Amino acid sequence: MNLVYDFSPVTVTAQPEWMLRKYSNEQLVEVTEKLKQQRKERKIEKEFLLCANCSFIITSLDYKIEIDGGYRHTFKNPAGIVYTIGCFSKAAGCFNFGDSTEQYSWFPGFAWCYANCLNCFLHLGWFYQSGERHFYGLILDHLTPASSPTIPS
Ligand SMILES: [Zn+2]
């Protein structure tokens, strides 16, 4: 899977690769502005993120939050697998399961359990909890934006 979207906090509305190839930087700024305007006009406030496997709605960019000083984190698990995750306050499309544990937790003080797609059960990330505080750490490669920007005519 090769996602061309960038979920970093600075560039929420990154453009697909083909748009970057097609337009000069100047044109890209103009197109981006037009797309932003279009979105406003259509009153699309939520930018949903879908399961990359089955397109079930998992969460929204509206629920991005910063944990330990950032939204996006890259970690390696004990098996050596590297994950880049984004933190979300809510992810209604996730099914949390497994016993919570603090063992190997990437966020000290937070216990984790698995968070999978409610619909197809793809492993999407982890649900973290510490007392009343909780959030989702979701693998960004396993999410895909709900809609691709279209070129204004
Ligand atoms: Zn799914």
Task: List the SSEs and their pairings.
Layout: H1 17-22, H2 25-41, E1 48-51, E2 57-60, E3 72-76, E4 82-88, E5 94-101, E6 111-117, E7 123-130, E8 133-139, E9 143-145
Antiparallel strand pairs: 1-2, 1-9, 3-4, 4-8, 5-6, 6-7, 7-8
The structure holds zinc ion.
Structure description:
There is one protein chain. By secondary structure, the chain is of the alpha+beta class. It folds into 2 domains: 9-45; 49-146, Metal Binding Protein, Guanine Nucleotide Exchange Factor, Chain A (Beta Complex). The protein is 15% helix and 35% strand. It has helices spanning 17-22, 25-41, and strands at 48-51, 57-60, 72-76, 82-88, 94-101, 111-117, 123-130, 133-139, 143-145. The strands form 2 sheets. The chain has a 6-stranded antiparallel β-sheet, with no helix packed on it. The model is unreliable at 1-13 and 149-153 (pLDDT under 50). Bound molecules: zinc ion. Zinc ion (ZN) binds at residues 51, 53-54, 56, 117, 119-120, 122. Zinc ion binds next to loops.
